[in-house]
Amino acid sequence: MAHESSDEREFHERSLYLNRELSWLAFNERVLDQACDASWPLLERAKFLAIFGSNLDEFFMIRVSGLHDQLEARAASSAPDGLSASEQLALIRARVLALSQTAAQLLADDLLPALAQNGIGVQGFDQLLPTQRERAKEYFRRAVFPVLTPLAVDPIHPFPFLSNLSISLAVEAENPISGERRFARVKVPESLPRFVPLANDDGEVSHYLPLEELIAGNLSDLFPGMTLLGAYPFRVTRDMDLDILEEEAADLLAVVDREIRKRRFGAAVRLEVSPGVPEHIRRLLLEKLEIDEDDLYETRSLLGLTGLLSLVQLDRPELRDAPLSVRVPAELDEHSDPFSVIARADVFLHHPYDSFSPVLHFLRRAADDANVLAIKMTLYRAGSNSEIVRALMRAAENGKQVAVSIELKARFDEENNIGWARALERAGVHVFYGAAGLKTHAKILLVVRREGAELRRYVHLSTGNYNATTARFYTDTALFTADPEIGEDASELFNALSGFSTSFNYRKLAVAPVTLRKTLLAKIDEQIERARQGRPARVFAKLNALVDPELIRTLYRASRAGVQVELVVRGVCCLRPGVAGVSDHVKVRSLVGRFLEHERVFLFGPEGEEEYFLASADWMPRNLDRRVEILFPLRSEAIRARIRQEVLLPLELDSTRVYEMNADGVYLKRRPGEGHPALDAQLQAWNAATKLAAGASNGTSLAPAQLTVSA
Known about the structure:
The chain is 36% helix and 22% strand. It has 711 residues and is of the alpha/beta class. The strands form four sheets. Strands 14, 18, 19, 20, 21, 23, 24, 25, 26, 27 and 28 form an eleven-stranded mixed sheet that branches. Helix 1 runs antiparallel to helix 2. The protein is globular and about 90 Å long.
């Protein structure tokens, strides 16, 4: 393996690295850009705006809270870009304010008027017609008033706890007799619909009233006899990250359960307020939440943009994307024998274009097959309604030896996973929680089956979670194989997870944190050596995030040697492409579309000589050093052809959803050239999968589009 030489120390220069947090905000800006794109159906645009808001909430709960922790601990910056925590927080604030202003303007000036024109009016209480107002008041008395609890703040009543992401009203009232001013907080109940449907005089629902507006318009019922001076919506975001020292946890499940309960009391990191909140109320909220003015964000937008998802779910198909029919491979439909199919040849799945049902069918058959002796599996995000888990429980009840590694620390899925762990244990499944100090993020399923006098291993490996719901919205790739060496590797991996192995001898799998990093570096170094010999060399990587400094430096070395480096990074990318003498041969693109790009696909070598790999891991220190991850090869030429047809070619054809990064970190959106059609990469991938289902050839009739890029 090549090593850095002294004259390559420049690759450590801070200017060569984009800040991770600002790069993430650039990704969320691309999501917001989709909401601005009028080529999407109206409710799809509202969906993207809701996702933008949800993403921003999680960013504050995890990333911004971490920066606050660094600031409090006075920790020196260890980031390659060298920015301190205070510098990052200042830059984040400026960027978030700008993005929030764009989002608010988009909602007020574009989306809300368009929704109203389509019979989905979102109005304030004061904008309602008299008959609508009466209906709203009746609904308030019947369905909302009994749930509300106004909490006064005075020497007898302390300031109430404000839960994470909850919307509240800061109410100011005056006693008309004594003239005394009082403050109270009214929480907007999360158990009630975010938008109240209101019928017009014809009985048809055409208007939706935000719940906080309904409550604010009826506060006199909550504070009878008082003169109401104002009601001001606000929202609090708290630190929601878990900090668990596994080496001190005798019972990890109990510790995670306890930490989840404590998490709701995390420190406040953001206060959102509507315009017009009096200064003295702002100061009161900041003081009680123990945060600074820099953590206050004023927005004229709807508080809690995620709430728009309830409108997105309305039964208005003409305002949504047309449904796409998913492919169910005939060889793995519900009537097939999956074991004989996989024994003959590897089977590739590309979700969501391919259905997730073959995975469920395979596991159900394994649960009921008398020849199956053992099933071993990793679960990271199983979801709240998991058919996978029920199949595993049935397998245990049928006498199979079933062992499941459940990741209790899967962020925001901890409660689901705790519940499933207990249910599986009650069914007789051996449940374990992976290696100490590591998250198990690898997605792997192993079935051991008796066939005559032999035992055969069947393995399913995936870039995505064993979750039937997300498999409809995330792009992921998966492989069924009966390859004996991969089967042996899978057995060894599960033994390492459930036992205490220290010696590893993986044959075809690369596994983090043991062999994955050095495997990736070695593959890139091989291409560097090819380029130095004057031979064609290429690295292609499609992944969710590129943060790891060592891999970035190695890619810089590859570019300097003449290797063509093509990166498709959905989210955070800390590498700067196109820097003279450093990354001239590096291109960085990002694809944001209807489905969440989640697959990790890697090619090493020039066209016609490539090695193909899929992986569960992004190129981040946490994935390579602090998680159990897998990278696995694709040997079948038929499967490689599908990768070319459904992953590589659509990226080249796309002229509407791909963004290209400049050296300054700015992304420019591809546009179709004059007279050329707007082509969507994900639709092209679906089209390729559809052709495959129809038995069409591996070719495509589509030609690359003429492209332009614009900010």
